[in-house]
Amino acid sequence: MRILILIVLMLTTATSAHAGRRVALIVANAKYQTMMPLKTPVSDAKLVSAALTAIGFDKVDVAIDLPRTELIKKLQVFAVESEGADIALVYYSGHGLGYADNNYLIPVDASIQKEQDVDLQAIPATAAMPASPLTKLRILVLDSSCNNPFSDARARGFRLRLAGDSLTAFSCEAGASSADGDTNSPYAQAFVSRLVEPGTEISMMFRKIRDDVSAATGGVQRPTTVGNLSNAEWFLNPVSTIKVVSIPPGPPSRRIALVIGNDAYDDKLGRLSNAANDSKLIARVLTAAGFDVELVLNADQREMKRAIMNLGERLSKSGRGAVGLFYYAGHGVQSGGSNYLIPIRADIAREADVDLEAVPGDAAIRQMSGADVSAGIAIFDACRDMPLLKSFGDGHAGLATPKTPSKTFVAFSTAPDAVASDGGGDYGPFATALASAIARPGLSIDDAFREVRKQVMGATHNNQIPWNGSTLIDEFLFSPDSAHRKTG
Fold it and tell me: Do 99 and 184 fall within a single domain?
């Protein structure tokens, strides 16, 4: 279990937050020489770095396992480099402790045997905060347990006094502990999944993080936030930063994606809350991962079919061995053992109308396979409850297990024959988890969907269990790290 993860965000005004330079320093200390090594700080740092890059930060510097002198120097250099930036972000992942009303970051070479060693061996958390006069708001996030090696009550808990507008977010309640996790901490996962959501005001973002972590830990860990914010709204990822593109000029891309989101259905089919938002979110993170994305919202049958045909044409122009991806959010139904995607304005009164008014669920899979892709990825967040299904009788809920041609990966937001949640907030649980997984560097597609499954099951109390099937031959990574740059 880690002792402390610290994130400090220095923001300018809401109106200029994305007009100028945004820079970040991420420090991850895990290989301690005299203290218990930590498991997840490095992977958490990579996860946060990928997410910050995805939302448009100009520079993200990552430093691993720093001794005291190097950590001090790194913070001093960043204080100079970040002078005048619109957003300067320092993320620290590693051991830390609260002592005598102060917070301290623990370098990897620290040897703290007694309370009196803290001032000499550790670094005050305030040193991680550049004191630029341009800084308008400071945000401190502690993904930490409140435990420490000392018995004195003064050494328990974390207190950091910030001047001016400030917000402090704790990954757990006072006196409680935070989970370190297997690959990433629950708090880091929730932080990143909410960070990449466009248009979420920062106070709401941390409330969503609180709910996500509480759900993922069965209520054991419940983050809290305190602060003194002005009336201005603050966004780390405004809607204006969404960059959804189709084919840019120049050589054809080797990664082609089609994202369709339908939610403006009539009452008979059942209007959805989040399909369009989910699609925008997935388009955003796919673009950041190097895909050329065509985004289609609230499409009728002709528009859906034309977009799917265009996916095949784009892949064919890219040449043999490209990667194709299809993501659909909206209503879907199975009939006669086949799956169908429901367009907007579909006139379906009985089951016999489905194949005339809907779009075959395997249409995009056939287009990708026909273009001789190295990997065809089809993701269906389409198992949402539809009122019309009640008139069809039993056996039509959710989607049927599909036939998967060679070099194909198929994923459902829930198990075959089951219904998925549309979500109670701005995004569904599946899209939220998927966006987080796509942004993580070095994660294979199989591992990515295992993480998605884990997060969705936690968020829905095991009521929704994502499913996937694969005939892929080669390894595929959505966001390769430096060791996988030639993959996917």
Answer: yes
Reported as a single tens digit per residue, the pLDDT across 363-384 is 999 999 999 999 999 999 986 5
**Between the CA atoms of 462, 450, 339 and 371, what dihedral angle is there, to the nearest 10 degrees?**
170
Are residues 193 and 250 located together in one domain of the fold?
no
Residue type, 395: G
**137: Cβ contacts below 8 Å, ≥ 6 apart:** 9, 10, 11, 12, 164, 165, 166, 167, 229, 230, 234
- The DSSP symbol for 129 reads S
Amino acid, res. 67: P
Check: pTM over 0.70? Answer yes or no: no
Please give the span between the terminal C-alpha atoms of the chain, in angstroms, as a whole number: 34
Q: Is residue 236 part of a domain?
A: no
Amino acid at position 437, single letter: A
**Which of the listed ranges 188-202, 282-296, 411-425 does the model predict with the highest average pLDDT?**
282-296
The answer to whether residues 95 and 224 belong to one domain is yes
What CA–CA distance (Å, rounded) separates 297 from 275? 9
Q: In this structure, is residue 476 part of a structural domain?
A: no
CB within 8 A of 384, min separation 6: which ones? 272, 275, 330, 331, 332, 419, 420, 421, 422
The amino acid sitting at 201 is E
Total number of domains in the chain? 2
Distance in angstroms (rounded) separating the CA atoms of residues 488 and 485: 8
Whether 254 and 115 map to the same domain: the answer is no
Residue 270 and residue 190 in one domain: no
Query: Which phi-psi region, left, alpha or beta, contains residue 398 (left: φ > 0; alpha: ψ -120 to 50)?
Result: left
Q: Order across the sheet with 292-297: list the strands.
A: 292-297, 255-261, 323-329, 375-381, 408-412, 467-470
Strands annotated E in 229-365: 255-261, 292-297, 323-329, 332-335, 338-341, 359-360
